[in-house]
Amino acid sequence: MGKNLNAKTRGVICIVLSAVCFTGMNTFVRLAGDLPTFQKVFFRNFVAMFFALFALLKAGDGFKPKKGCFKYHIMRSAIGLGGVIGNFYALDKIDLSDASMLNKMSPFFALVFSAIFLKEKVKPKQAAAIFIAFIGALFIIKPTFKNENLLASTLGFIGGMCAGGAYTCVRKLGNMGENSKLTVFIFSAFSSLVTAPYLIFNYHYMELWQWGALLLAGLCAAGGQFTITAAYTYAPSREISVYDYSQVVFAAITGFFVFGDVPDIWSFVGYFIICAMAVWMFIYNNKGENKIRA
User: Please, what's the b/e burial string for 175-210 (b: 16 or more CB within 10 A of its CB; e: otherwise)?
Assistant: First the structure.
């Protein structure tokens, strides 16, 4: 990346690139067609595991977690796997942009879990933003019995909640000085091992194009994980996290042109509410940081 770019600009570029990568991952997962969710999850993580392994070997880093980190790796991996399963199930049933937006509830849940487990204080205005964002999610989920995709929408929401928990664990590992490449590798390896038995007993035959779609999904997933890790290395969350919501724009465009998705008016209301709360928290957090510096 150009030497003339400051750290924040590099962080923004990386987080937008991660949004492109994760949109690509979601698109290829859906293009893989009518395959079991667990089978898609396995191949997504299996491919990403080899990229993480290559990065570790190239850097000459070891595979031993730092002292006290192992339990957080297991927590991050288990919760993160739940998030991927929820997201992938939703991707097969609802609009690409809906599934992406429900997954973007993760920053709000990261605040909640950080308060519970890391004892980081959540201010009243932040709590209000979380509550309003939850209302926005309800506009997307549409929790009525008339909604044929209620289960998928709910699992997509739970996937976003799990992702928030996983990011909290990643934050804890980062604070403990753990190698981010090792964190990606352990998560990918754990997810592959847990979902592999499903393939042994319930493997669904795949055409060549489905193999290609899942391979590309894994490539995009690896790119997304490494670029988002780099983004938060260059700049803190409060300065760049709002740019992660660019994924919803990419997902809406891709969903329309590739799958013919046209979200209903209630989904757009939900998008607006959640994005508005994300922007508001971004501004609020930066104001608080500026006051501290002053």
Answer: eeebbbbbbbbbbbbbbbebbeeebeeeeeebeeeb
Along the chain (294 residues), what's the average pLDDT of each consecutive run of 10 residues?
Answer: 70 90 94 93 92 91 92 94 95 92 87 82 85 92 82 94 88 85 92 93 93 94 84 73 85 93 92 91 73 51
8-state DSSP, 132: H
Helix (H, G, I), strand (E, B) or coil at 259: helix
Q: What is the model's pTM?
A: 0.87
DSSP 258: I
Three-state DSSP class for residue 66: coil
d(CA 128, CA 130): 5
Tell me if 267 sits within 8 A of 139, measured CB to CB: yes
Give all strands (DSSP E) within the chain, no chain letters. none
Amino acid letter for position 213 = A
